[in-house]
Amino acid sequence: METFQITVNGKKQDVTADPEMPLLWVIRDLLAMKGTKFGCGQALCGACTVLVDNEAVRSCSYPISQVGDQKITTIEGLSEDGDHPLQKAWVEHIVPQCGYCQSGQIMNAAALLISNPKPSESDLEAAMAGNLCRCGTYTRIKDAILTASQNS
Amino acid sequence: MKSFIPVFKTREPQNKSEVFIPSRRDFLKLGSLATGGFLLGVNFQCSGPKGELLTFAPNVYLSIDSDNLVTIIAHRSEMGTGIRTSLPQIVADELGADWNKVKIVQAEGDEEKYGNQNTDGSFSVRMFYEPMRKAGATAKHMLVAAAAEKWGVPASECTTENGQVIHAGSNKKIDFGDLIEKVKDAPIPAPESVTLKDPSTFTLIGKDVAIYDNKAIATGKAVFGADVDLPNMKIAVVRRSPVVGAKVISYKDEKTLAIPGVSQVVKIDGAGIPPGLDKPLEGLAVIADNTWAAIKGADALEIEWDLGPNQSYNSEIQLEEMLASTAKDGKIRRTRGNFKTALQGAAKVIERTYAAPFYAHSTIEPPAAIADYKGDGTVEIWAPTQHPQWARQAVAAALDIDYQQVKMNVTLLGGGFGRKSKPDFVVEAALLSKAAKSPVRVQWTRQCDLNHDFYHSLSAQRIKATIDKDGKISGWNHHTVFPAIGATGNADEVHPSDGELGLGCTDFPYNVPHIQIETHESKAHTRIGWLRSVSNIHHSFAINCMMDELAEARGVDPVQQALEYLGEDRNITFTEEMPGGKYENYGEPIDAFPWNTGRMKRVIERVAKEAGWGNALPEGQSLGFASQKSFLTYVACIVKVQKDTNGKISIPEVHYAVDCGVAVNTDRIRSQFEGGAQFATSLVMTSAITFENGKVKQNNFDTYQIIRMPQSPKKIHVHIVESQEKPTGVGEPPVPPYIPALCNAMYKLTGERIFKLPFGA
In the prediction, which pLDDT does B761 show? Predict the structure, then answer.
């Protein structure tokens, strides 16, 4: 067990954990922030996506020991009042069905818009290919990202 | 009361509680308890205008406070269909509530109080449309009466709107909240004195209403199964029998217990063979302080298994055997005319076999449940369950307590599709909390989920169809074989049940003079369950692909053929052609919910028109058609596929036409069809569970693939037919017709018919 100081949503926190513990479980179990979801444990579904220095990272497969002083952003920290352009677009398009994968979808889309603010449809599809939705909300996810990219 | 909702046999556990309908007696009983906070232990902290918050609760689904807050109970589980919004929307419409001032509270599992909570079979709206209307209308009636009396005007001149009672003549208005003192102890009116709204005055029913949890989900605040945190909660990860029926002989847990955070290893005794629909598998649970330690601890266990009789099971071999069996005479399940006559007079016979694999539900939220066994013989659970009452009963049986001692809180479900009907994972949490003497969350990993599901059954079919010398379809001989859901609880069930056959097989609707439907024996070597649309998945695939092939052989258009063979507009029945059997009609009496060929024809005509069926298409594009009524909802579907210059296949467009009777939430109807097309694309193109040496070969989404955004259908158009018929569900009906529509479109594009799913992307 080791103690790590990490920055999550702008707040510095100390956590004591097995260095191998994936960031997902640090966030969920040790910091009790439940917006980031567990889906596959092998970076295959994207439900656990968070931003690490503004890049999309599958937190289920990212050990705490690799975090260092990089800044972590979770769905809880994406905006002050849930008013990030993506969150507003998600609400406008009524994207979610069950909703479980949507934190990861939104965080992945946030990383996309940071690196590519006006993605083409094929850019968008390629960037979102790692995020599964079993309910099948893909058409609305796409519409919401395009709306957000126009409004940001 | 019992006639309210006949239960669909293949899906209901035995020992279910009696079906409930809110009766006058129940209204009265609860109406007399009209004090704040009795519903679900909700504490009303704030006070009303007079300093004291008063609550009017005319029935179990609805209460109104003197501060104008309307609280509606969602008693069905929310797994993505929108039901947590759609049923309250019905109550609110009849009440005349201000939707922006409606609070929705999830009911705990209590069927004696709320009625049926088994969220399954696309029947929530069908079952509760009328009760929800009455729940709202009763409250409205009382509020109107109170306001009318206050104003000295006839009640018949008053109505409700946006949370107020309104008297049109004098333009008087009063907030619901200001009437609570007057109505809270008033007698509940007789049901016959309560009138329902004229549908033309609906304000919420038939509209796009955003789901209640929309923003909570977009901000990560929505609470799913694994999100509940309790003080001192432990986490459990279980290594379960790799082969169904396997038993633990011995194990070594030294390495596990050496992992920091691991506190205990607990054996769970499994049911063996048959495994049962409501019991855990045999396994060893690792209890730890955090999920990571539990996962590592479970990996480190060294277990010696007695693998039992299923250890030689291979699903590809069983499929070959099942396919071979369909060439033999089977058990007759439906007969019309004499198929031999059709064969003798045939100008052409087409005979095909169809195969589909086991499918896993693979909800993105793997099963998880939290239990707090309190030591006084009671246990409190938080679970993403589709069937809270069954979960209560299964937990009670496992702990040997009364189900009244089990408090079942229902969280949001991160997908269900039938998986989370089964309470095995909830039972695990309860057993482990008792063993650990602390609250426990049992957390399934993706491998747990894919290896230990209740799978959609492996299936083989053979259809032999005859065309006579006049070019008419004269005979239809359909053989179907698949391990039955019932076999999971009773190994002697070797034929599909009438219920399973009524899902797209014995309800073959076409006017063919000679029909013979047969089943063959097969055994279950794993746990079989129900997956979104159940045996409609494989039946619709086979039937609609054969119909397309018949149209081609006859030189006719498949859409025209479907209309021709549905025949005149009329109600059709099947039971009289099922020797010793019964068409179950999804648990509804056939006279109350008839199979009407006219309604099916209208959706076929509509989808053909909307999709431009018959128009010339650019090079490299094709359309496929299919129609399938399921869960009492009529659906027709046209899928467009496209091959680009690099040979890459895509699905640019899908059209659905649907008649689900009265449409309650049009946005959620569309979303179910949009998602249904994606879900079905996975079934057709990418997903399969296979067994070797009794074990599932797929461990994660790299090998059990579901469709990703780049391969997903691009535009999905949903055309909802205006209807005043009784509403029926939309959760499952999108899946069955899409499967063969996609296959038929692929055939047009490639020239190759698809006889085995998945065909690969």
Answer: 47
DSSP B356-371: E-BB----SS--EEEE
Dihedral angle computed from the Cα positions of residues B247, B250, B255 and B256, in that order, rounded to the nearest 10 degrees: 40
Q: Do B213 and A96 touch (CB under 8 A)?
A: yes
Which helix (H) or strand (E) segment holds residue B562: the answer is helix B558-566
What percent of chain A stands above pLDDT 90? 99
Mean pLDDT by 10 residues, chain B (761 residues): 31 33 37 29 36 89 96 97 97 98 97 95 95 96 97 97 96 97 93 94 98 98 97 98 98 98 97 96 98 98 98 98 98 98 98 98 98 95 98 97 97 98 98 98 98 98 98 98 97 96 98 98 98 98 98 98 98 97 96 98 98 97 98 98 95 98 98 98 98 98 98 98 97 98 98 95 47
Given CB atoms, is A43 within the 8 Å cutoff of chain B?
A: no
- What pLDDT score was predicted for residue A152? 74
Last residue of a domain, one of B187, B218, B249: B218
Total domain count, chain B: 3
Instruction: State the pLDDT at residue B51.
Output: 66
Residue B605: domain span: 315-360+454-750
Q: For chain B, give percent helix, strand, coil, nearest 5.
A: 35, 25, 40
CATH of domain A2-77: 3.10.20.30
* Residues in A 87-146 with any Cβ partner in B closer than 8 A: 87, 90-91, 94-103, 106, 125-126, 128-142
Tell me, what's the pLDDT at B560?
Answer: 98
Query: Taking the complete model, does pTM exceed 0.90, yes or no?
Result: yes
B319 beta partners? none
Looking at the domain assignment, is residue B540 inside a domain?
Answer: yes
* Residues B670 and B616 both lie in one domain: yes
Which residues does residue B239 pair with via DSSP β-bridges, in sequence order? B284
Residue B366 sits at the chain A interface (C-beta within 8 Å): yes
B88 and B202 in one domain?
A: yes
CATH code of the domain containing B96: 3.30.365.10
The B residues from 659 to 678 touching A (CB cutoff 8 Å) are 667, 671-672, 674-678
Same domain, B694 and B663: yes
Name the residue facing B364 among A45, A94, A95 (closest C-beta).
A45
Q: In B, residues 69-108, which contact A (CB 8 Å cutoff)? A: 78-82
DSSP string, B280-299: PPSEEEEEESSHHHHHHHHH
Total Cβ atoms within 10 A of residue B100:
7
B410 touching A (Cβ < 8 Å): no
CB contact under 8 A, A38 and B291: yes
Residue B270 and residue B410 in one domain = yes
Answer yes or no: do B675 and A136 touch at CB < 8 A.
yes
What pLDDT, on a 0 to 100 scale, did the predictor assign at position B45?
32
Q: What is the ipTM of this complex?
A: 0.99
Sequence ranges of the domains in chain A: 2-77, 85-151
Tell me if chain B has a CB within 8 Å of the CB of A60.
Answer: no
CA B297 to each of CA B228, B252, B255: distance values in angstroms, whole numbers, following the listed order: 22, 11, 8
Alpha-carbon distance B137 to B91, whole Å? Answer: 8
User: Cα distance from B464 to chain A (closest Cα, Å)?
Assistant: 35
Collect all residues of chain A within an 8 Å Cβ-Cβ radius of residue B713.
139
Task: Report the residue of B224, B262, B290, B292 to disrupt the A interface, i.e. the one with the largest count of A CBs within 10 Å.
Answer: B292
For residue B524, being part of any structural domain is answered with: yes
**Any A CB within 8 A of B20 CB:** no
CB contact set of B760 (below 8 Å; sequence gap of 6+) = B685, B686
Give the one of A47, A74, A125 whose C-beta lies nearest to B364's C-beta: A47
Closest approach of chain A CAs to the CA of B327, in angstroms? 36
C-alpha span between A138 and A142 (Å, rounded): 6
Whether residue B382 sits in one domain with residue B259:
yes
CATH topology of domain A85-151: DNA polymerase; domain 1 (1.10.150)
Domain endpoint, select from B177, B199, B218: B218
- Does residue B8 sit within a domain? yes
Residue B258, in any domain of the structure: yes
